[in-house]
Amino acid sequence: MNQWSQIATQFKQNIKLFDRIDESELCKESSFEINYQMRNIKYKKERPIEPDQPDPDECCGSGCQRCVLEVYYEKLEQYEKDLMEWLAEQDENEDDGKNEQS
């Protein structure tokens, strides 16, 4: 049996094992903890990173169609929107965590 056949066989056996798991057999506390952790992972996003401001000498001043300053301000505007959304999500997650602990 070649290596790929062995991997496929092992994969099929693992799937059969997962099919046999009955959630009702899991401890309620463990199930709650797993769900809580999965929800936190699902909602956790990294804080947006502010774009680097171009150096003053990067703009040639000739009115280019896509000036580096225009690109920067577009990215900055998107960053600010993303940051506000991220902060709102952080507040919601904190509120959810406090409510679940009560």
Automatic annotation (TrEMBL):
Q: Which UniProt keywords apply?
A: Coiled coil
Which residues fall in a coiled-coil region? 69-96
Q: Where is the Oxidoreductase-like domain?
A: 48-85
The UniProt entry, under InterPro entries, shows: Oxidoreductase-like_N, OXLD1
PANTHER family listed in its UniProt record: OXIDOREDUCTASE-LIKE DOMAIN-CONTAINING PROTEIN 1
Question: Which protein is depicted?
Answer: Oxidoreductase-like domain-containing protein
Q: Which organism is it from?
A: Paramecium pentaurelia
The taxonomy runs:
Eukaryota, Sar, Alveolata, Ciliophora, Intramacronucleata
